[in-house]
């Protein structure tokens, strides 16, 4: 008789419990979405950031229309295979292929290589072009007679030495934006950032072949 009656347990309203469950589900979805976005962003940006972490950074800067015209001018009356070192989105390779060259591009960024292949297919020159994902320092360019380079000043001395060791005497090297430090250009086109310098290796290396003149001996 002296015991106090216990208060009944307070029930949680059904609406509040369902609202908390919905908020928890939305939280999981938002977390998953943000995580997926970060993963995708990492996958896309890593190929662009990785080259910047190397000793020599070769950023992607698209060639201008004037630069491409100047490159093609330096290729007039030339034949043979062509390689673009650091081919970016493939526009130089594709332009050369349209002029009849068997053109190849080497690029470290896989996204740019895949886009280049698509552009070559779209422009109908995929049979005359090839694009490779590769570090230029690990590739031999010995079988190319025309070389196009969009470089940066830090890499030009080392690349000059590499090309001089690998290329044949009939090769022509076309540098865009920055010239080579030691070679003297045989031809120049454009001005400002659109300037291109063409080097005929037979002159830079001093390996010109001279025909032997045979003079008949005269009787004394």
UniProtKB/TrEMBL annotation:
<comment type="similarity">
    <text>Belongs to the ANT/ATPSC lysine N-methyltransferase family.</text>
</comment>
<keyword id="KW-0489">Methyltransferase</keyword>
<dbReference type="GO" id="GO:0031966">
    <property type="term" value="C:mitochondrial membrane"/>
</dbReference>
<keyword id="KW-0812">Transmembrane</keyword>
<keyword id="KW-0496">Mitochondrion</keyword>
<dbReference type="GO" id="GO:0016279">
    <property type="term" value="F:protein-lysine N-methyltransferase activity"/>
</dbReference>
<keyword id="KW-0808">Transferase</keyword>
<feature type="compositionally biased region" description="Basic and acidic residues">
    <location>
        <begin position="11"/>
        <end position="21"/>
    </location>
</feature>
<feature type="region of interest" description="Disordered">
    <location>
        <begin position="1"/>
        <end position="23"/>
    </location>
</feature>
<dbReference type="InterPro" id="IPR026170">
    <property type="entry name" value="FAM173A/B"/>
</dbReference>
<keyword id="KW-0949">S-adenosyl-L-methionine</keyword>
<feature type="transmembrane region" description="Helical">
    <location>
        <begin position="26"/>
        <end position="45"/>
    </location>
</feature>
<dbReference type="GO" id="GO:1905706">
    <property type="term" value="P:regulation of mitochondrial ATP synthesis coupled proton transport"/>
</dbReference>
<protein>
    <recommendedName>
        <fullName>ATP synthase subunit C lysine N-methyltransferase</fullName>
    </recommendedName>
</protein>
<keyword id="KW-1133">Transmembrane helix</keyword>
<keyword id="KW-0472">Membrane</keyword>
<dbReference type="InterPro" id="IPR029063">
    <property type="entry name" value="SAM-dependent_MTases_sf"/>
</dbReference>
<dbReference type="GO" id="GO:1904058">
    <property type="term" value="P:positive regulation of sensory perception of pain"/>
</dbReference>
<dbReference type="GO" id="GO:0032259">
    <property type="term" value="P:methylation"/>
</dbReference>
């Amino acid at each position: 008789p002296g015991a106090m009656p216990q208060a009944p347990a307070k029930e949680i309203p059904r609406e509040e419990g369902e609202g908390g469950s919905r908020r928890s589900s939305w939280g999981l979805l938002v977390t998953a979405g943000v995580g997926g976005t970060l993963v995708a962003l990492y996958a896309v940006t890593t190929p662009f950031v990785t080259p910047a972490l190397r000793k020599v950074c070769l950023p992607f800067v698209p060639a201008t229309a004037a630069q491409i015209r100047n490159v093609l001018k330096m290729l007039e009356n030339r034949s043979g295979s062509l390689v673009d070192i650091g081919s970016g989105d493939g526009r130089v390779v594709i332009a050369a292929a349209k002029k009849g060259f068997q053109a190849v591009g080497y690029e470290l960024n896989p996204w740019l290589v895949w886009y280049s292949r698509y552009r070559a297919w779209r422009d109908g020159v995929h049979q005359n072009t090839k694009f490779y994902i590769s570090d230029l320092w690990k590739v031999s360019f010995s079988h190319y007679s025309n070389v196009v380079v969009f470089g940066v000043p830090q890499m030009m001395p080392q690349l000059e030495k590499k090309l001089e060791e690998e290329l044949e005497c009939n090769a022509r090297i076309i540098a865009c934006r920055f010239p080579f430090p030691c070679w003297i250009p045989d031809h120049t086109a454009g001005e400002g950032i659109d300037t291109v310098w063409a080097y005929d290796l037979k002159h830079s290396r001093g390996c010109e072949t001279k025909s032997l003149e045979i003079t008949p001996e005269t009787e004394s």
